[in-house]
Amino acid sequence: MTVKVSVVIAVYNPGKYVEDCITGLLRQSLTPDEFEVYFVNDGSTDETPARLDQLAAEHPHFHVIHQESSGWSGRPRNTGIEAAQGEYVMFVDHDDWLGDEALERMYDYGKANEADVVVGKMAGIGRPVPQELFRVNRPRATVSNAPLIDSLTPHKMFRREFLNEHGIRFKEGRRRLEDHVFVVETYLRAKNVSVLGDYLCYYHITRDDGSNAGFQRFDPVGYFGNLREALDVVESLTEPGALRDKLFSRWLRNEMVERLRGQRLLKLPEDYAEELYTEIHKVVTERFGPGVVARLGLTQKVVAGLVFADRYQDIRTLAEWEAGIKPTGALTSLEWQDGTLRVGFDAELHIGDEPMTFRQEGERRLLGLPLSDEALGALDDQGIKLDAPLAKSDVDLVVRHREDARQFYLPVKSELHEVAAGDGVLRQRISARAELDPETAASGAPLDKGIWDLHLRIKSCGWSKETRLGAVRGEDVEAGRLAALTGEPQRLVLPYWTDGPGNLSLDVDQHTNKLEGEAVAFMPPAEGTVEGSDVRLPLPLHIAATGGDTVQLRFERKNVGKYPADATLDGRIATATLPLDKLTGMRWAVRVGVPSAARGERKWTRLPVDVVVDASGAAKVIDRHTPSATKKAAAAVPKKKAAAPRPLWRRAAGRIKRALTNQKKG
């Protein structure tokens, strides 16, 4: 059988982190004869080479190539390309891992769309990854119609014959940005690039020890020398004009301007920061024109303009101001409607503890930046105006899996509001409503079992700031925060407040035992009643679809028995018929049984109430922390006065006597 995919992994002293990479490969849905793996050991000095040799001995489709250390990942990746037999080549870092179906899905998607390059959705665990690129599937993407240029890491699938046809290889030696040079050439030469956005293919991690190669401080002279090589590729494969300017703006924005903003600049040693700025200034003035700067967001344009004008101290002043910018969000409403959680919220940017304000001059809305008159004049000379594009401000609400960082954008409708904040000054508030359907939120698929956190992201004037939602909330929000049964088969989805800050998260399919705590908070015992043989209890549940066998109550007593009773539901009130003949004369714990799709059965949660049935068959609902009648009677009997402890000498004499007796027996 033809090998579909060759996975190439450059390996150098990964230690324990290679195990996650290996596990992800062993879980792939492609069969072993459909893919192969090449670990190219680039002179590792830890125990990894022996581990990989053992792995290859156990799995014939795994191969290990040992070579002398080359100092970086370019040469071992090229070695892997030469050894590969697959139709496509997939590059993986030794400390990252793949989604279980990543190779199969990416290969099938690439074949279906005749793609030379396949880009699979990425998740960043402790590090940023592109967001906009993966909002939707893009079967025929180009650098013109999609933000491909935002993703220049090599963790993609490339058609092997395409690489060989054009002689595309990684630059070798100890260097930076060799992946940029490689990937941008493939984008510009490919007949088609396909972006798979509806399945999480690649997990890009930050190691606990902080030793990821890309996170180490670099030599600015060498780094920006390597960056020029990527610019050279763009110049050789494009004509001067809008497309080239668009591509160049990616490096100006990400590799230069963003390094000179906020805490990212301020946390650097000052001498290193000045050296970094000097090299950025050289590249900017050598290679970029006004058309490149025009592609940036407003505040990015400002920093770029200050670089062109060589005003480093003004850049530091602006960075100190920007370091105080933070996003804020207030949860205004929360309610279930037909199985969908509707989330209302307001969002606004703050500077420190105060809302960000804008100057109002007639119809103009201007940023109030802390810049000198000379700096403002330099920007004006370059045609860079401080008009704030407030009409383009936007907000996203994202649901993100806590363990593996998978995230999905929720449908949001927003309104922009200008709020007066004094004479000639205004604020901008964004009011929004989002819909979270647990059965479709994962790009049309159900959210998996686990904890999902809600994050809002404000985009305005060149800033993109993210924060959690829920710690600030309206008084009426709590009433709508109920668990819901959704889907088929049904499972429980529980909105809850996190410990400490009180942010909003979802527990999907009872990943934790939080329902019990929620029941305690929601159910005052007095609300439970018994009428004849029927017990009526309020449950902390929104039932998205009534009908069917959704909820049961169970009455149980240790060493006696468990007696289930079907419950009928009216809103949030569950009514069940008590089996009085079995319960008479005892006190019984009450549990609610809710379907669990993952377990394939009910998960039982104890409620904060008990049912007591006296000898005559009369029943009542009580707080489960109330002592039983037996315990009350016992408590009423006067206790005997405790005897005084024996003197120490008597206890010691007793021990000696026992020791002598045991000695005689021996």
From TrEMBL:
Keywords: Transferase
Ranges of residues in domain TarS/TarP linker: 220-319
GO molecular function terms listed in the Swiss-Prot or TrEMBL record: hexosyltransferase activity
Superkingdom of source: Bacteria
Residue stretches making up the Glycosyltransferase 2-like domain: 6-128
Pfam entry (one): TarS_linker
Record bears the keyword Secreted: no
PANTHER family assigned: GLYCOSYLTRANSFERASE (PTHR22916), UDP-GLCNAC:BETAGAL BETA-1,3-N-ACETYLGLUCOSAMINYLTRANSFERASE-LIKE PROTEIN 1 (PTHR22916:SF3)
Protein name, entry field: Cell wall biosynthesis glycosyltransferase
